[in-house]
Structure to design on (919 residues):
C-alpha cells in the first residue's frame, strides 16, 4: 500500500515538475546593465487576469526585473487593502474588476501614473487621472449548451432581451454582480444603454429565469458545459471559446449590444519599487507586451494597433456599448442596492 | 528521574525551573494574546467605527428580518448536519467497536485517509455525480435533481465530517470499561440491554462533545454553502461575500460577531461534558488489549454493516470521482481522457506546494505543543483565569476563517508587528487557528491520567520543569503526534483565513486550488486536490509510523491498537 502511494506521489510530482519546467526560462540572457537599470528587482503582482503569468518571463528577460505573483480576486484584494488601511507588499495590481480599482483609487490606495504608451489607448479605456489603465477589454456574452437547448426545445438567445423570455425559466446561470466584476459591468453597461426604466424592467424579468446567482464569474461557464444549465452569461475570452472544442457548447455574442469592462492595471501607492513597476506597466501597454498578453489569453486588447484575436470569435466591435466607465464606480452602491431588492433571496 | 542529587543544588535548580516554568506560561499567554485576541479585537473594532467615528450603525442594520432569516438558516443547516454526522459516526464507531482487530485497524486507517478532504472538490464531485446532469442521477437514473439548496449543504457537510467525527468518537469507545460490559453480560443482560444501559451511557459525553465540535465547525464553514448552497444563504457565506463584494469591512465583521454567541453556547456545553467525563476517569480502563468482542443483536448489526458499507461506497465515489477528474473530462456525460490538466498547473504550483508542506509541518508541531501546554496549565495546574484563556484560544476555531484572516491583516500590517507578506503570518495563522483542537485532545488525555501523578513526583523532589519534561510530555507523546496529524491535515487544506494572508511569492497549495475553482478550471483543481491528498497522506503515514513505534516502546509492544487516529482521545 505504502509503495503504491509513494509511486503515485512520485509520478504526480514528476508530472507537475515537467509542467513547471516548460515555462521556466527566466534566467536573464543579456548583460547590458545600462538597458536594465532595475535588474535584480523583484516586483510583486496581485493578479486577476487568467493566463497572464505566461507573459512575465518575456518581461523578465527583457528588463531583468523578476516578477512574483499571486492570483487573488479583486474583491478579496480590496478587502485585504482595506483591512490594512491601504498598506500592501504588492507593487502592481493586474486585471480584474474595474470597480474595485475605482474604489481603491478613491480610498487613496493607488499611485497615479500615465504611461507614455497610454497615448495609443482609447481614453474611454483608461482613468482620466491615471490611477489605472485598461490592458484589454473583456466583452460579455452567452455560452449555450446545445444539447440542453435541443432537448428542452429552446431557441438560442440572440439578444439580452431574449433572456427575459419565460421559456428560459431556471435555465440561465450568471454570477452575482456584487461579486463578479464582469457581471457588474454587464448590469451597469446595459442599464446605461437601455436607460434605467427599461433596463430594470428587463433585468427583473431575467431574474425570474435565474435559479440562483453564482458566487463568482468562474462558475457559470463550467456549469453550463456540464449541462446543469442551458445558458451562461459570462466574459468572452479565448478560454471561453476554447470550451467549444471540448463540450457541446457554443459561445454567442449578443446581436443587440456587447457589454464590456476594461481589465485594468495599476500601481499601488505603497509600492517600494515604483520605477520598476512603471517599466512593467509600460511593457504591458506596449505593442509587444499587448501582443504577448493576447497570446496568453485572447481578449480585445486596449491598444488599437493590436488586432482583435481570432480566438474570441467574430466580435463586432461596433456593437460594444458606448459607456462611461467612471459610472461603474460612482453608481455601484446604488445599483447593487437596487439589484439586491430585485434579486431578493436568490442573491446575497 | 535523577532524584538523588544534593539538596542545595536542587534548591537552585528549583528556582531556575520555576523561572522557566513561568517563562513558558508567559510565552503561551503572550502568544494567545498577540495572535488570537489582538487580531480578533482589531477586526471587531472595524464594526464599531465608521471613518474614525464610533457608531453602532452596523449592528442596527443587522437587526433586520433578512438577517434573522440568515441566522435561522444557519442554525437549521448546522444542527441538522451535525446531528446526522453524529448519528452516522456513532454507527461506524459502534461497528468498529464490535469488529475484529483487523477490520478495526482497516476502518481506522480508512477514516484517517478520508479525513483529508480538500475544499470545494468534494462539492464539485457531488454535483458531477448527483447534479442536474449528474453521472448517477441523470445519466444512470434519468432524473434531473436540483442539488442546490440546504439539502446539498447538509449532505456535503455530513459526508465531509463523518471521518473526523467517527475518529473522535472511537476515542470514547476505546475508553469504555470493558469490565462493566462483561459484568452486564454475566449478570444476564441481553446484548441490547447492555448496549442501551452500559455502552451508550459511557460514550454519551463523547457524543455530546462531537456534536458540539461539529456544530462550531459547520457554523463557520463557508466553503460548502458557497458551492452548493444555491440561493440558500447562511451566516458564514454572507460574512465572506459581504467582505469581497461590498468592500465594507465594518458590516462584514458585524455579521461575524453574530456567530460568536452560538459559539459561546457550544463551548459552554463542551466544558460541561468535559467536566463530567473527567469525573468518570480513573485512568485504568482501556478496552484495548483484551481479546473480547462485544456481540450485538443481528438486526442492529445489519444496520451498522449497512451504514459502514454506505460510508465506503460514498467515499469510493467521492475520491474515485476526484481521481477520474484529474485525467478526464466527464462533464459532457462521456469520459474523455486528457493530460491537459497536468500541463495547465500554474507555474507557481511547486513552490506553493513546498510552502504548504513546510508551513503546515511547523504549524502542526507548534499548535500541538501549545495546545498541550494550555491544557496542562488550565486543567492540571488549575491556574486561576486559565479557563478564560482556554475560551479565547478556542475562538479562532469557531469564528469564520475569513474573519480571523482579516483580523491578521488588520493587526499585522503596521508597526509594532509588521509581518504581513511574510511566511511568519501564515504559520502563525495556521498554528493559532488550530490550538483549540490539540487543546481538546490534550484535555481528554489528561482526564484519563491520574491527577495524583504530578503531586507524587513533586513530593519525590521533581521540579516543575522536570515534571513537565519528564512526566507530562512523554505521557502525551501519542496525543502530540495525533494532534500533529490533525493540524497538519487541516493546514494543508485551509482556505478561509489564509485567503487574505498570501502574497506574491508566498502562496500555498490550498489557495492555488481555491483560485483554480474560482476561475472555473475544475480539471486543474482536481489535479491539485489529488496532489494535496497524496502529500498529506504521505506525511500522515510517516507520523503514524512514528506514533506506532513510540506506542510500542511505551507499552512494551502490548497493544493491537496499532492504527492511530488523530485526536482519538479528543473526547
Amino acid at each position: 500500500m505504502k509503495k503504491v502511494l509513494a509511486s503515485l506521489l512520485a509520478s504526480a510530482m514528476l508530472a507537475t515538475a515537467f509542467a513547471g519546467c516548460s515555462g521556466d526560462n527566466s534566467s536573464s540572457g543579456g548583460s547590458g546593465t545600462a538597458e536594465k537599470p532595475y535588474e535584480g528587482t523583484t516586483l510583486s503582482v496581485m493578479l486577476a487576469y487568467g493566463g497572464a503569468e505566461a507573459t512575465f518571463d518575456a518581461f523578465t528577460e527583457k528588463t531583468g526585473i523578476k516578477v512574483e505573483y499571486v492570483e487573488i480576486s479583486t474583491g478579496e484584494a480590496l478587502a485585504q487593502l482595506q483591512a490594512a488601511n491601504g498598506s500592501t507588499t504588492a507593487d502592481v495590481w493586474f486585471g480584474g474588476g474595474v470597480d474595485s480599482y475605482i474604489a481603491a483609487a478613491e480610498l487613496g490606495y493607488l499611485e497615479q501614473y500615465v504611461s507614455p504608451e497610454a497615448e495609443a489607448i482609447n481614453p474611454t479605456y483608461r482613468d482620466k487621472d491615471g490611477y489605472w489603465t485598461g490592458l484589454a477589454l473583456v466583452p460579455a456574452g452567452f455560452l449555450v449548451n446545445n444539447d440542453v437547448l435541443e432537448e428542452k426545445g429552446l431557441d438560442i438567445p440572440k439578444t439580452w432581451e431574449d433572456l427575459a423570455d419565460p421559456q428560459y425559466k431556471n435555465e440561465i446561470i450568471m454570477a452575482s454582480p456584487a461579486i463578479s466584476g464582469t457581471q457588474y459591468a454587464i448590469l451597469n453597461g446595459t442599464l446605461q444603454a437601455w436607460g434605467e426604466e427599461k433596463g430594470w424592467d428587463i433585468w427583473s424579468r431575467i431574474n425570474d429565469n435565474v435559479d440562483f446567482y453564482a458566487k463568482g464569474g468562474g462558475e457559470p461557464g463550467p456549469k453550463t458545459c456540464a449541462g446543469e444549465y442551458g445558458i451562461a452569461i459570462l466574459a468572452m475570452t479565448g478560454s471561453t471559446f476554447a470550451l467549444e472544442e471540448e463540450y457541446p457548447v457554443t459561445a454567442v455574442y449578443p446581436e443587440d449590444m456587447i457589454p464590456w469592462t476594461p481589465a485594468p492595471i495599476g500601481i499601488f501607492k505603497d509600492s517600494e519599487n515604483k520605477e520598476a513597476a512603471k517599466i512593467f506597466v509600460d511593457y504591458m501597454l506596449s505593442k509587444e507586451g499587448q501582443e504577448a498578453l493576447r497570446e496568453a489569453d485572447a481578449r480585445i486588447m486596449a491598444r488599437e494597433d493590436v488586432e482583435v484575436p481570432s480566438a474570441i470569435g467574430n466580435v463586432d466591435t461596433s456593437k460594444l456599448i458606448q459607456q462611461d466607465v467612471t459610472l461603474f464606480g460612482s453608481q455601484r452602491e446604488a445599483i447593487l442596492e437596487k439589484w439586491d431588492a430585485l434579486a431578493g433571496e436568490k442573491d446575497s | 528521574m535523577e532524584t538523588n542529587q544534593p539538596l542545595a543544588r536542587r534548591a537552585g535548580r528549583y528556582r531556575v525551573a520555576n523561572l522557566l516554568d513561568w517563562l513558558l506560561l508567559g510565552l503561551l499567554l503572550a502568544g494567545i494574546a498577540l495572535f488570537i485576541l489582538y487580531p480578533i479585537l482589531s477586526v471587531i473594532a472595524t464594526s464599531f467605527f465608521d471613518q474614525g467615528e464610533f457608531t453602532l450603525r452596523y449592528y442596527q442594520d443587522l437587526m433586520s428580518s433578512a438577517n434573522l432569516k440568515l441566522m435561522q438558516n444557519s442554525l437549521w443547516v448546522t444542527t441538522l448536519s451535525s446531528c446526522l454526522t453524529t448519528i452516522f459516526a456513532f454507527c461506524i464507531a459502534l461497528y468498529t467497536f464490535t469488529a475484529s482487530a483487523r477490520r478495526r485497524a482497516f476502518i481506522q486507517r480508512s477514516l484517517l485517509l478520508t479525513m483529508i478532504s480538500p475544499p470545494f472538490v468534494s462539492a464539485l464531485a457531488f454535483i458531477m455525480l448527483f447534479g442536474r446532469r449528474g453521472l448517477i442521477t441523470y445519466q444512470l437514473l434519468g432524473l434531473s435533481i436540483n442539488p442546490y439548496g440546504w439539502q446539498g449543504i447538509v449532505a456535503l457537510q455530513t459526508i465531509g465530517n463523518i471521518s473526523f467525527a467517527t475518529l473522535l468518537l472511537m476515542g470514547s469507545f476505546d475508553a469504555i470499561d470493558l469490565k462493566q460490559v462483561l459484568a452486564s453480560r454475566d449478570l444476564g443482560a441481553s446484548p441490547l440491554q447492555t448496549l442501551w444501559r452500559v455502552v451508550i451511557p459511557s460514550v454519551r459525553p463523547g457524543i455530546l462533545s462531537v456534536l458540539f465540535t461539529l456544530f462550531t465547525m459547520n457554523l463557520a464553514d463557508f466553503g460548502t454553502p458557497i458551492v452548493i448552497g444555491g440561493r440558500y444563504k447562511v451566516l458564514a457565506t454572507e460574512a465572506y461575500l459581504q467582505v469581497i463584494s461590498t468592500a465594507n469591512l465594518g458590516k462584514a465583521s458585524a455579521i461575524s460577531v453574530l456567530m460568536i454567541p452560538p459559539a459561546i453556547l457550544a463551548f459552554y456545553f463542551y466544558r460541561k461534558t468535559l467536566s463530567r467525563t473527567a469525573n468518570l476517569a480513573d485512568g485504568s480502563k482501556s478496552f484495548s488489549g483484551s481479546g473480547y468482542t462485544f456481540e450485538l443483536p443481528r438486526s442492529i448489526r445489519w444496520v451498522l454493516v449497512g451504514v459502514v458499507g454506505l460510508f465506503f461506497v460514498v467515499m469510493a465515489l467521492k475520491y474515485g470521482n476526484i481521481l477520474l477528474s484529474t485525467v478526464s473530462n466527464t462533464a459532457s456525460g462521456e469520459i474523455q481522457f486528457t493530460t491537459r490538466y497536468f500541463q495547465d498547473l500554474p507555474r507557481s504550483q511547486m513552490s506553493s506546494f513546498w510552502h504548504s508542506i513546510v508551513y503546515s509541518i511547523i504549524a502542526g508541531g507548534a499548535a500541538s505543543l501549545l495546545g498541550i501546554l494550555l491544557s496542562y496549565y488550565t486543567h492540571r495546574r488549575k491556574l486561576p483565569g486559565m479557563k478564560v484563556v482556554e475560551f479565547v484560544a478556542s475562538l479562532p476555531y469557531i469564528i469564520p476563517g475569513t474573519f480571523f484572516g482579516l483580523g491578521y491583516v488588520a493587526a499585522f500590517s503596521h508597526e509594532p508587528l509588521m509581518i504581513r507578506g511574510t511566511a511568519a503570518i501564515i504559520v502563525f495563522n495556521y498554528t493559532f487557528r488550530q490550538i483549540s483542537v490539540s487543546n481538546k485532545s490534550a484535555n481528554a488525555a489528561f482526564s484519563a491520567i491520574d491527577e495524583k501523578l504530578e503531586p507524587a513526583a513533586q513530593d519525590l523532589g521533581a521540579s516543575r520543569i522536570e515534571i513537565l519534561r519528564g512526566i507530562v510530555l512523554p505521557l502525551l507523546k501519542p496525543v502530540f503526534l495525533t494532534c500533529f496529524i490533525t493540524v497538519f491535515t487541516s493546514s494543508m487544506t485551509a482556505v478561509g483565513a489564509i485567503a487574505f494572508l498570501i502574497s506574491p511569492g508566498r502562496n500555498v497549495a490550498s489557495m492555488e486550488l481555491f483560485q483554480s475553482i474560482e476561475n472555473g478550471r475544475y480539471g486543474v483543481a482536481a489535479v491539485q486536490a489529488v496532489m494535496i491528498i497524496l502529500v498529506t497522506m504521505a506525511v500522515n503515514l510517516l507520523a503514524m509510523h512514528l506514533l506506532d513505534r513510540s506506542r510500542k516502546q511505551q507499552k512494551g509492544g502490548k497493544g493491537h491498537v496499532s492504527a492511530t487516529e488523530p485526536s482519538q482521545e479528543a473526547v
Remarks:
- The beta strands of chain B are 49-50, 53-54, 328-329, 336-337.
